[in-house]
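Standup, Tuesday
Yesterday: got the pipeline producing structure tokens again.
Today: sanity-check two examples.
Blockers: none.

Example 1:
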Amino acid sequence: MRIKDPNERSFYEIESDKNNWSLRELQRQYDSALYTRLSLSKNKEEILQFAEKGQIIEKPKDLIKDPYILEFLGLSEKPDYSENDLESELIDKLEHFLLELGNGFTFAGRQQRITFEEKHFYIDLVFYNRILKCFVLIDVKIGELRHQDIGQMQMYVNYYDREKRLEDENKTIGIILCQDKSEALVQYTLPENNEQIFASKYFTVLPSKEDFINILNSDNGKIS
């Protein structure tokens, strides 16, 4: 692959070896601008570490991407599908979704029911990350993120921390996948020291090069 930036090229070489990517998967990760997406919230020194060591996951924010590229689902760009449809497609293509999520993820379940005071709630997708040693809860939303969605995820995370997490495990992480979001809404709904709940946009088609540049240069292209 002809990658002019030596740091970016080194990153893909290390990640290909570490994750045993096929040529096709390497091409997909490059086309989806993995290096650029992971670099969004990093300073210059941290980006240089990508070239030397690849992706190092030490804290929750290290494994969060924004946006996530779900073009492997084969869904149209327009939202003529339901949240259940999207969730089902993700499960049907679980191997691809795990590769998009990143290192260390294992699938734990879907539509996990939690119950208290005779009320039932269902978490869309539950994963466990072996590197961070914690549960990762994912909620899939069609349309724009609402503050109620963040509150709901906070409840899920609190429940897992208090009822499911073992003493030697780290705090639960919650990821809300949405088609659009207000950075101000996310900022003021979550506490300032938030390290557990993240909202990330997703795309069901691979953006064009021009669209990608606009996304990555906009406020919506920053990790919350």
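Example 2:
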Amino acid sequence: MPSPRNTKPKMAVVYNPIKVDLAKLKKLVNAAAKAADWATPLWFSTTEVDAGQEVTGSAIRRGATVVIAAGGDGTVRAVAEALRGSGVAMAVVPAGTGNLLARNLDLPAGNLHESVDIAFNGYDRPIDLGMVNIVRDNDDHEEHAFLVMAGLGLDAKMIKNTSTKLKKAVGWLAYVDGIARSIPELRPVKLRYSVDGAPNRSLSAHTVIIGNCGSLPGGLLLMPDAQPDDGILDMAALVPRGRFGWLNIWNKIAWENGVLRKSVMGRRIIDLSKDVRDVRYAKGSDLNMIVDNPEEFQLDGDEFGLAKSVHTWVDPLALIVRVPKSRSK
């Protein structure tokens, strides 16, 4: 008789060797796998030519039950892109500057033991993936996934102009320097956009961000209605008007969204206040943008070059993420 197949669950780890303490991570993962009676873990390093998509595909083919994405937002995004629709869960060991998905899902950052424990013992939470088709100036097309946000304009320029050395030294605060470096390039982005197939509308904005989640580094809540599992993408356009335009935007994001919305009384104050037109919102499952001139584009905090048009849509509940049991809903 043929011998029975090994049915033990199997963990795979896709790690960024620049950002991860591999020896420490291996020690914890191998010990957790032994304690949980899982199969011997699989290990895959990202490289300059493979941000994680190809090795994650290999992990799936080799029978991985869960894939740990250990690294920054780029590694997490690449692993998620490869896991899309596979039914294989992703766990996150945040080791980057922004750790955007971890922040939005309240996953632990800086606690390696807890992150590994969630990978083996957490609950599976399905979330949406944002999808994007980028058209370059030469008409080449590229399709990618994103977990948190995609953006055109000032935020993409800021990411491009942020020093890698400074990010290693001071973390997400380095983006302040990136903003300062982007000010000389500050000008409105002129574009046409369409939501869910409606007629095109014209817009002139300094930044347009499309979000699957709503929180930025530093606890800033850009899109208060964005949820990672609602089948909807949210769009925020920053349109500063007059002398106090940027001050109004800061007040909207930091004070109104970040403070007032956390209490019943604060939400009543928002309802009674005049809406800030310097931040404009839209939402839908399918968003299309065409810019007058190619603009810098970013996905989950990584620069993705110049785009002349961007088509984004939501793939509902296409990714399973391991979360703590207390936060599974």
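Quick observation on example 2: Residues 11-121 form a domain with the Rossmann fold fold (CATH 3.40.50.10330). Residues 169-182, 263-267 have pLDDT under 50 and may be disordered.
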